[in-house]
Every structure is written in C-alpha cells, then in structure tokens.
Amino acid sequence: MTRQIAISEEAYERLARLKDNKKSFTKVILELTDKSRGDISDLFGAWKISDAAAERLKSDIKRARKNFLDKGYFKGKSQ
Fold first, then answer.
1. Contact at 8 Å (CB) between 69 and 78?
2. Which end of the chain has the smaller Cβ count within 10 Å, N or C?
3. Separation between Cα atoms, residue 22 and residue 60, nearest integer Å
4. Do 15 and 28 form a contact (C-beta atoms < 8 A)?
5. For the segment 22-66, what is each residue's pLDDT rounded down to a tens digit?
6. Is residue 65 within 8 Å of residue 79, measured between CB atoms?
7. Contact yes or no for 18/28 (Cβ under 8 A)
8. CA dist list (Å): 28 to 2, 45, 57
C-alpha cells in the first residue's frame, strides 16, 4: 500500500540529497527511522579507561585545541 504525504521543499531537498539512484525515498526514510541502529546514548560508559588515562586524554585534547586556535585556524573565541 502506498500513502501520499506532504512535506516542505526543504524536507524534500534534504531527503533527495540522502537518496541516490539505487534508493527510493521510502528506503531513505526507513533507514533514517530504523530503531535497530540504536541511540548514541546507549554507548555511554562503553569505553573503559582508567581515570589517569582519561585525564591524559583530556589534557591532550586541550593542548591540541589550544594549538589549533593559536595557529589561527578558527577565528572564534578561544577557551
């Protein structure tokens, strides 16, 4: 059975960008709404690292961010 729905031009354009010649709009919508793909929040706590390793990682990220900002790649506010 088919149904007819009305969507905005913007919604149509977004769906069309996700669609290729091998996919129908139905297939794109089904992929986007597939509950079996899970939710990113399901991954919370999945990566087991020590507190020390987490602190090193946080420090490395801050250092990389500072280097990035210092080189002028981003013209926004530095933190």
1. yes
2. N
3. 43
4. yes
5. 899 999 999 888 877 777 777 787 778 889 999 999 999 999 999
6. yes
7. yes
8. 15, 30, 37
